[in-house]
Design brief:
Chain lengths: 114, 111
């Protein structure tokens, strides 16, 4: 299996610009998770989907962040407008059907907002 | 919601020694406890997991123990090797596949 695929791997942009991060989950996985990782705050869950439907977005920091999952094989996390404090590594993870299944992480997107 | 605490935040051991990382959780409904290893600049990878109907699980040099009464679980690595150096995260989950991660332990294995 190809694993969870994220793009881009690195993104450097100026504050105020729109940033779009992309994720392709493992085929057949029904759950998709977006995390943000920083030294200060560790791994934070931003939002997760089940069968393309957002289940819990309580971790989304503010309205500048939005996430969509238009189909079972694609999700986006968008930041508009971006700010320097959004700089972090953003991970996407997916897990299969059933309770208490392990999450499989993508390689992440390292985002730097100047 | 669930709160997972992880200790220590850093751990340094000599190659060949054992390493133990401990986590506590607050929600007695949690019933799944995975452990992830994250090497520098890489993604977190699952190394072992345990479900609440089991008290201990082993996989070669790695073992996890669970005490449901005390609400704590631990990762044990025996015969540590330099390639075990990484950040280790514990997590707890109840039935909705949402993980609550600990803050991580940076393990350094000195050759």
């Amino acid at each position: 299996d190809a694993g969870v695929i994220q793009s881009p791997r690195h993104e450097v942009t100026e504050m105020g610009q729109e940033v779009t991060l992309r994720c392709k989950p493992i085929s057949g996985h029904d759950y998709l998770f977006w995390y943000r990782q920083t030294m200060m705050r560790g791994l934070e869950l931003l939002i997760y989907f089940n069968n393309n439907v957002p289940i819990d977005d309580s971790g989304m920091p503010e309205d500048r962040f939005s996430a969509k999952m238009p189909n079972a094989s694609f999700s986006t996390l968008k930041i508009q407008p971006s700010e320097p404090r959004d700089s972090a590594v953003y991970f996407c993870a997916s897990s299969p059907t059933g309770t208490n299944q392990p999450q499989h992480f993508g390689d992440g997107t390292r985002l730097s907002i100047l | 919601g669930e709160n997972v605490e992880q200790h220590p935040s850093t751990l340094s051991v000599q190659e060949g020694d054992s390493a133990v990382i401990k986590c506590t959780y607050s929600d007695s409904a949690s019933n799944y406890f995975p452990w992830y290893k994250q090497e520098l600049g890489k993604r977190p990878q699952l190394i072992i997991d345990i479900r609440s109907n089991v008290g201990e699980k082993k996989d070669q040099r790695i073992a996890v123990t669970l005490n449901k009464t005390a609400k704590h679980f631990s990762l044990h690595i025996t015969e540590t090797q330099p390639e075990d150096s990484a950040v280790y995260f514990c997590a707890a989950s109840e039935n909705f596949n949402k993980f609550y991660f600990g803050s991580g332990t940076k393990l350094n294995v000195k050759p």
